[in-house]
Amino acid sequence: MSTNNIPGSFKYRIKAGDTMYNLAQKYNVSLNNMLAMNPSIDSDNLKIGQTINMPLNNPVATANIKGGPLRPQITGTVNFFDVPDGTWVCADISGLPPYRPAVGSANPIGPHGFHVHEFGNCQTGDPGDPFQTAGGHWNPTNQPHGNHAGDFPVLFSNQGRASMCFFTSAFKPEQVIGKAVIIHQNPDDYRTQPAGNAGKRLACGVIQRFNG
Ligand SMILES: [Cu+2]
């Protein structure tokens, strides 16, 4: 798995009772790495409210993304890291189609709608309209589209590659294991119900527990 694009740390604000040792255990990171990343911090005397750098360790969950019949060149990974109060999501995707501007009533191709869908099933199904078995957007709190837990920023690509990380407080990584990541042909407008008019499904990946 390629993780070389992932920013190596996140910020953590010290709470009452925190120690470097406990934080290293909680986030499953190396105590030595923590100490090395915080050279000016007195590790025996942490102050409530002070911010320290925490190394990112392995993701809790990961999706191996593969293109379907409309764009078989797509490959990549989406990783879900456990961080305080939410999840740091990192995507690195290659083989996306070239950008095409909107023509008449046809939507642009790219940037690409990007979501967690409710079922972890990436069977192709109809090759002209693939990955319907992944269902609709994962929406556990019955929100309008634009605010689904599974609504992600669009994937912005250059020469077919999109690489980004973002934070969400909408879920923890454990909650999306067994669901699917879908990449769409068209941009998400974040307002058309129920799916943002993001068009056909180019690629899919089942979100699994990371064990590597
Ligand atoms: Cu979608």
Automatic annotation (TrEMBL):
EC number: 1.15.1.1
Pfam families the record matches: LysM, Sod_Cu
A molecular function (GO) term: superoxide dismutase activity
Keyword Oxidoreductase: yes
Chain ranges of the LysM domain: 10-54
Cofactors demanded by this protein: Cu cation; Zn(2+)
Cofactor note: Binds 1 copper ion per subunit.
Family: Belongs to the Cu-Zn superoxide dismutase family.
The protein's name: Superoxide dismutase [Cu-Zn]
Taxonomic lineage: Bacteria, Bacillati, Bacillota, Clostridia, Eubacteriales
